[in-house]
Design a protein that fits this description.
Layout (H helix, E strand, L loop, with lengths): L4 H12 L5 E3 L5 E4 L1 H7 L3 H4 L4 H7 L2 E2 L12 H8 L3 E8 L5 E8 L7
Length: 114
């Protein structure tokens, strides 16, 4: 399968960072995450591969600061994709290893990764 140059470069850049980085396509599918994000999510990317929205939302559901489940349409990713603007939000993620981790996430749309 052929990958756009932008995606290849974004994956290489993310792999070099010690900050958790997750890459999503314009439909909200998780297409890559680096090793640091794997520590947060409780699995390595090599173990999960790409996941469509419902898969990653079920694999590591998020809660807001009050402990309410964040629905698919209200997730930071969905909000950023819908608005076309950056979104920052503190969430608690129930990772794939069962551990709950609090994180402040920043999502910003990068056009050209379609």
């Amino acid at each position: 399968m052929s990958r756009p140059l932008e995606l290849i470069l974004a994956r290489q850049w993310a792999a070099l960072l010690s900050t958790p980085v997750m890459l999503f396509d314009m439909e909200g599918s998780l297409i890559f995450f680096n090793e640091a994000a794997g520590l947060l999510l409780g699995r390595k990317y090599d173990e999960t591969g790409s996941m469509v929205g419902p898969e990653w939302q079920a694999a590591f559901p998020m809660e807001d600061e009050a402990g309410r489940v964040i629905g698919a349409t209200d997730s930071p990713v969905a909000t950023a994709l819908r608005s076309g603007s950056p979104v920052m939000r503190t969430v608690t993620v129930r990772a794939m290893d069962g551990v709950r981790r609090k994180a402040t996430v920043t999502v910003f749309p990068v056009h050209g990764l379609e």
